[in-house]
Amino acid sequence: MSLILWTLFGYLLGSVPFGLVIARALGLGDLRKIGSGNIGATNVLRTGNKPAALATLLLDSGKGAIAVLIARQFGGDMAAVLAGGAAFLGHCFPVWLGFKGGKGVATFLGTVIALHWPLGLIACATWALTAVVSRISSLSALLAAALAPVFAWGMGRTDIAGIVAFMAVLIFIRHQANIRRLLAGTEPRIGRK
């Protein structure tokens, strides 16, 4: 029963659409009608407001990390894994927005950092290095997501490899349109409005 409650806690926390809230509070408009229509930090950046994009990135990653840390403190390791995975699902499929949410990259990174910080840092470094080289956010996200379960397994963290792989698969599913544009050479670069 307690694991179900921790899962619900993670989902509800993950469902808070920080990008949408920040954009509206700053008068940037409805993110769902801007750029890609996504509610995440990359689309907030397309409004030209870098501080808003940074705040969205930190809050979206933070909700995954906070779900893990609180659940681990009061419910144990299994509760932490379930709460983190549920926070990720909440971001992608928030009940408040008719289950139409973001692509989950920031929440994925925050969750992984809280589950096992060395793995999280490797995933963040993979994203950052790919972003510097390619200037394409989606490619960076896909590469970080694809490699994270491999690194988890290689680091002997089989206890979290499954949830990390699950989140990675969902990131690929959520990025189908991006993958098509990447293959066509039409995916927008970071910083483009």
Summarize the structure.
The protein has 193 residues and is mainly alpha-helical.
Descriptive tags:
10 helices, 193 residues
Counting DSSP H or I runs of 4 or more residues, the number of helices is 10
**Average pLDDT, to the nearest integer?**
93
Biggest sheet, open or closed, and with what strands and sense? Answer: none
- Estimate the helix proportion, in percent: over 70%
The secondary structure category is mainly alpha
Oligomer class: single chain
Q: Order of helices and strands, N to C?
A: HHHHHHHHHH
The tally of structural domains comes to 1
Tell how many strands the DSSP assignment holds: 0
Round the Cα radius of gyration to an integer and report it: 16 Å
Could you say which overall geometry the principal axes of the C-alpha atoms support? globular
Low-confidence stretches: none
In percent terms, what proportion of residues is strand? under 5%
N- and C-termini, Cα separation? 46 Å
